[in-house]
Write a structure and sequence with these properties.
153 residues, mainly beta, Immunoglobulin-like, 2 domains, four-stranded antiparallel sheet, 2 helices
Length: 153
């Protein structure tokens, strides 16, 4: 699920929280702008639609915003080694990838980034010096890291 503002800019958990001002009543936040959600009505890639989910001035518990963004997890990266010259296609398996917006391997942005489904990402490594590196999925609920998951040789 993806959230965006009236101008069509994608909202992450951080930017959504920035639109919500804290009020004194029991951890409530108040939205300073309308927030929309995009979705597919048939559960697939067709009939993309959107709906208004928060109205400017609306107050909601902070826990409601937090619950909208599931933190991704990385279970595995395959293959686990590749050429230092880059160009190795990798498959990342895990959970909650629907909010993923990119991948870095050893701090370098991977190319050909695709979220295949909620549990699978494919990408291609960029060049990097030889050695073990972290794989990071950039996610709308915050980045998630698999330490030492890919080694350049």
């Amino acid at each position: 699920m993806t959230f965006y503002n009236a101008a069509g800019t994608r909202l992450t958990e951080t930017t959504l929280n920035a639109l919500a001002d804290t009020v004194t009543e029991a951890e409530l936040v108040e939205f300073s702008a309308d927030v929309y959600q995009s979705f597919t009505q048939d559960g697939g890639g067709f009939e993309k639609a959107s709906r208004l989910v928060f109205v400017a001035g609306q107050r909601v518990p902070q826990s409601m915003i937090d619950g909208l963004f599931q933190t991704a997890t990385i279970a595995s990266v395959t293959p686990v080694t590749g050429a230092a010259a880059g160009g190795t296609p990798i498959v990342i398996k895990g959970t909650d990838f629907s909010g993923a917006s990119g991948v870095t391997v050893g701090g370098n942005a991977a190319t050909a980034f695709v979220v295949v489904d909620n549990q699978t990402i494919t990408a291609t490594t960029a060049a990097h010096a030889a050695g073990a590196t972290d794989v990071v999925v950039q996610d709308d609920a915050g980045n998630v890291t698999k330490t030492g998951a890919f080694t350049f040789v």
